[in-house]
Structures are given as C-alpha cells and as structure tokens.
C-alpha cells in the first residue's frame, strides 16, 4: 500500500469506535436499526464482538492482512482495494457484526501441490472476510492461547517449528527412541462442525460470535462456477482455521498428557515418543481409537507408523541415530530443494547468470532461514556445491559451441591448453561444470559477488 505510515494511520480513522451500540444508518443500502433485531445482548453475555470491532484490533488485523497479501476471493477484490472499500462500507459491516447478522461469502477453491505428491485443497476467503477472521482470531487467541498445551507449537505466538523439532530431539536423546508418527487423514477437510462448535461454545458465550464462526464454517466453496455447501471441515486459507484446529486438537493434547506421554504437536502433525516398539504399537492403537470415538477423526494408516525417528520425517527434518541424535534434513526436503532449483535454472532459459541468481535468491534465503538450523553442516555444504555446479552447467550450455566456450574460458582467465582441452572434450554441461577449467572461470567468489545465498555458514 502506498503512502507514509502517518498517512495510512489517518486513512484508517474511519475505523474509530462509535460506542458499544451499532451505528444507525440512513439512506440507500442502510440496514434496519440493530436495536430492532438484536435481542441477544444481555449484560451477562460476553461482549466479544465489541472487542472484535474495537479500532485498535481492526487496525492490527488490517495491517496483518496487508502483510499477508494473498489472492482475491470469489468477489475478485484485491488487498490493495480493501482500504477504499472499507471507507465506504465498513459502518454497515460493523453494524452487521454487532447485531449478529453478518454473513461471509463462500471461499474460492484452489489446489496446490503437496511436497510429497498429491494436491492440497485451500479455501480462499474474500479480503473482507479475511480481515474479519483475522480480527476474530486475535481476540480469541488472546484468551485461549495460554490454556493450550505446552507441547503444542503450531500457529501460536512465540512458538515455532524449530522449537518443536528441538523438543523432539530432546525426547529422543532422553531415551525415547521410538516414535509414534500420527497422520490425520484430511484433517482440515474432515472436522465435524457440531463437535467443533461444542468446544467453542464451552469458551464463548457471545451468541453473535458463535453464529459468526459457524457461518464461516458453513459459508460454502466456489468450485468450477458452482457453490458447494460445506457440511464438514474448516478450510485452509483463512486466518481463523489454525486457531480452531488447535482448539479441537487440544483435547488430544490433554489426553496424551493425562496418560503421561512425551509428545510434540504442530497443527495436525503429532509425534509421540516412547521407549520401545511394543509400547509404540500399544499407543498407536489406543490413540487411534480415541481420535475416532472422541473427535471423529481418522488416522491415515498409510502415512502413520511406529518407527525409529531416523526413519521418519518431522516438519521437514529427521534425526541421526545414536545416543546423541543430531537434527538433519529429511531426504524429501533435499529432493524438494533440488527440484525447485532445477525449475529456476533451466538450461534453455536464455537468461543471464545474474538474472537466474536474482530469481533464486528469495527461495534460497527463505529455505536457509528455516532449514539452516540442522546439525549436519556437511549436507548444507554439499548442497551449496550442487547449486553452484548447476549454475556452471547453465553457463556452459549458454556458451553453446566449442569455439565460443574456448573464447569464454580464455576471457575468464583459463590457460590456453586447459581451455582448448575442456572446450573440445566436454560437450555435456553437467560434466563440464565439474572441470577445473570451469572452477577457474567461475570460482565460488563469483557467485557470492552476484548475490547467491549460501546455505551453509562456512563461507570458505
């Protein structure tokens, strides 16, 4: 969004509170007075919706939506168009929220590939619904988060996937060398609405809030031009879904704590650490029954297992075997990195080396910030070498002919004999990328100067 922070602050003054009562609107498009409809505001009812509509909460939600960006929903509105829309329409929507009559629009169905194959279905709410979901989430999370389990790490302030894998590493080092890896089958698509709302209702007394949350769950999905009703599930893609998933799965956390288990949960990814395979199988059977009977959730037997931690992956990582387990990259993580780098370094792309590196930089920087904590630096160094070799092979391919390759090698400081030998003997770009001549022509420092991020901390 354009403009200074001070200007944006002034532009958001239309979100100022107007008191606890909804504003009365007149003229075209006005809704009837809220007092004529809303009869569910007794003094003893929690006034959560008033907290949602407080200016400070809405401004915080708006800024988060702007930071997240994201695609338009079914109405086609972009995040950049949201501010102008709110200036004109927010008083009406605020009144609808306070009177309990706001109705969200259906979500737009999109599919993205999963890292290990298949497609993940996302539901993209409209930008306005994302703003309201974010505002609701902030109010509820402030009340609920402190009540969640210490072993839950996903989508919680001050908690991260890094903390989760380090906690798992601690359990393994402490002798819990078998892992019960539980994969919930299509969790976000299978959440039972009535069961979830019963858990929400234990914590929320504001009936307007309960109606709004159910309305988000039942808003429907637009797919192939048709709106399909949603009888179950909490669509991934909205700010509220992660909090609701944590609320439902907190019941699993409490059951595991009651039984004295050591476990780590990140969203719907839950691992329990035990001392023997026999104990692990017993836990797998009993927790599978608990999930099905209590939460109406099904464990996917094809993706769940009782196994040694080094045989499984957790949040993209795995562990080395032995009394002092080290955090390492899961094989699928390495393969996925290489696939993404190959996509960005197609040897027929015809782009300059600096352009290719510029395209690689955001992905590698983000990858390093997450996976760079692994305890196996040699793996990161090997990946650095593989990426540089991939780039050298790209350049070799672009040089095309033996004559051009000879001339380019000479320009880059390679001796005449070595340049001639390499240019004639290495038609294959991948083999050429490992030759001494290409190491001289494109040393590691060249890639550093062009801004190529290094995955390892060893910059030698």
Characterization of this structure:
The chain has 460 residues and is of the alpha+beta class. 50% of the residues lie in helices and 10% in strands. It has 19 helices and ten strands. It has helices at 5-11, 48-52, 55-68, 82-99, 127-144, 161-173, 187-190, 193-203, 207-217, 241-258, 277-295, 331-344, 353-371, 377-399, 402-411, 416-425, 429-432, 436-441, 444-449; strands at 107-113, 119-124, 178-183, 221-223, 226-228, 262-266, 269-274, 305-307, 317-319, 327-329. The strands form three sheets. Strands 2-1-4-5 form a four-stranded mixed beta sheet, with no helix packed on it. Strands 6-7-3-8 form a four-stranded antiparallel beta sheet, with helices on both faces. The longest helix has 23 residues, at 377-399. The radius of gyration is 27 Å and the shape is globular. The protein starts with a helix and ends in an 11-residue tail after the last helix.
What's the arrangement of secondary structure elements?
Blueprint: H1 5-11, H2 48-52, H3 55-68, H4 82-99, E1 107-113, E2 119-124, H5 127-144, H6 161-173, E3 178-183, H7 187-190, H8 193-203, H9 207-217, E4 221-223, E5 226-228, H10 241-258, E6 262-266, E7 269-274, H11 277-295, E8 305-307, E9 317-319, E10 327-329, H12 331-344, H13 353-371, H14 377-399, H15 402-411, H16 416-425, H17 429-432, H18 436-441, H19 444-449
Parallel strand pairs: 1-4
Antiparallel strand pairs: 1-2, 3-7, 3-8, 4-5, 6-7, 9-10
Helix pairs in contact: 3-5, 8-9, 10-11, 15-16
